[in-house]
Structures are given as C-alpha cells and as structure tokens.
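Example 3.2
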Amino acid sequence: MRDTPLIALFAFLGAAAAGLLGACVLLLIRRRSLAAHLAVVAGVAVTAMLAGTLAVARAMFLSAHDLRVVTTVVAMAAVVSVVTALLLGRWVVARSRELTLAARSFGDGGDFAAPEGPATAELAALSRELEATSARLAASRGRERALESSRRELVAWISHDLRTPLAGLRAMAEALEDGVAADPDRYLRQIRTEVERLNDMVGDLFELSRIHAGALALSPSRISLYDLVGDALAGADPLAREHGVRLVGDGVEPLPVEVDGREMSRVLGNLLVNAIRRTPADGTVAVAARRSSEGVVLSVTDGCGGIPEEDLPRVFDTGWRGSHARTPPAGAGLGLAIVRGIVEAHRGSTTVRNVTGGCRFEVTLPATDG
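Structure, written as tokens:
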C-alpha cells in the first residue's frame, strides 16, 4: 500500500506527457478532417495508458520478458483503437459530406432533404434544423414572390388610376381655355373632385412609403374605443348615405386602448370606406369592439357577399383590389395595406374571414389595464 502513491505518480506523469503531446498535435491539425482528430484522440488515450504502464513497469523493475509482454498488449490495443477511430471518423465524415451536399441544394433555391441512413445525434439535430430552415426559406421566397406580384399590380393600377383623371383634367382645362365649356362651373367642380382624388391617392402612397420605411412615428395616448368608433362612424356617414348603406355601432364596448388616435382613425376610416363601397344598397355595415384573450378586438362586418377563399391571404397585400373589374373610385388598393401597416406599428394584428352574407375584418390591439 505504501507503493500505491508512487505508482499513481509515475502513471500520472507518463499519461500527462502523452496528453500534452496529443494536445500539441490537435492544435497543429485543428483545421484537418474529423477523422484525423478522432485518430489522435484514440492515439492519445492508448499512448497515455502505455506511457503510464511503462513508467510504472520500469519503476517496479519488471523483467525484460514481462516488460515486452506488457508493451505488446498495449501496442495491440493501440492499433485496434486507432483503426476503430479511423473507421468511425470515415463514417462521420461521409455523413457530413452527404449533409453538405443536401444543404447546398436548398441554398441554390431547392428544398432540403435529409440524407437517408443512420446518423449521430448531432448530425440528426443539424438535419432537423436545416429542414426547418429550408421550410422557412421556402415560405420567405413565396412571400417575396407574392410581394413582388403585388408591387407590379400596384404600379399597373396606379398608372391606370392616375392616367384616367389626368386625361379628364387635361380635357376640361383645354375646354375652359378655349372657351367651349358649356357649364364652366360644373367643369371647375369636376376638376376639384378629380384633384381631391389625386391628392388622396398621393397621400396613401406617402403613408404607405412611411410604413414600409419604418418611419411611421406614433404618438399614443389613452382613449376609449367607444369615442374612436363614434368619430369614425360620423365621418363615414355621408358616404354610407350616398350608397344607401346603414351603419351600426351598437356592439362597441367602452374599452380603453393606448393608440395613436389619428392613425387609428385612419384605420377605421379605411375599413369603413372599404366596407361601404362593397356593400350593396340597403345593406348594413356593423362595427363592434370586445375584449378577448389576445387583447382588444375591433371588427367591421360588411355585406359584400364574401371574398373567394383563394384571395383571403392577399386581402392586405399592397395593390390588391379583389377584382380586375373594379373601377377607379374603388381606390388603388392601398387602404387595407395601410391598415395592416398601422396596426402592426401598434403591435397588433389584422385578419379577415367570411361570414354569412359578407366578410369581417378584425383588428386586434394590445389590451390596456383599467
């Protein structure tokens, strides 16, 4: 028992020397293949055992025959360990290369498909992460294509909607200039109407550009949804009377919200104008507000007859107007895109779904205590 500490010391010194040597080798080959690293690790383990064994054997003054036996046994173990490490390293490297080739496919625009066959837990976890990343990239590419399509539609609609009133303004201006206008006052009123339309379109474009640039500055204050909806209904009442549509706001609870009153008035105004224009005469547009688990939900329900299911995901896209037969007074397809941008700036969300006889637009805002 008195020799035990001395034996442990000799074994530790021999193993430490082998470990230090292995660490230096790993440092030199740190950029090489994983197979080489595994071989070095296996070699270090066996060499440490061999060095410790030899140091103890010499200290114990074993015979030359016994020393050769010990050395031979340890050497055979070293050979088997290194060969096993090399085989394992080649298998791991092969799996890693297959994973690299699979990852390259979705980097070039394809979808990631994990290589078949067994893999280590780390490589399997990496494959799952790459599959999830591939799905997110595919969704992102789809959104990008949809956004680009919306932008092209927006340019086409804006070009059309600007050209029509500008052509009319030019014709009326020439008629007034030449003195051939039968009713100059009517021409002037029409010019004013067209100018207001153009001004609204330019204002919508400016607002949308601020939203997309992240330059929409909010000035939130604590207000009641009851007052907000009341003001919006009063502002939309003339348009509703013109179209023969009845506005209903009986389902509005007096809930407090922390919002920018001016911007949220624009949200409600856009939703109401959109609903009134799509609802036939003698129809009803209903506004409601309630508290839910997600926050405060403000809804506008119209009588448009519903939106095709394939169009529902695009309703809030820039430039979407639902039907190519829509006339210029229906707008340039910016109103709902502005609604979504303003609501998201308030950390809220917008949704739309079909209901009996029409559709319901819902705006969810963070709830305010009290």
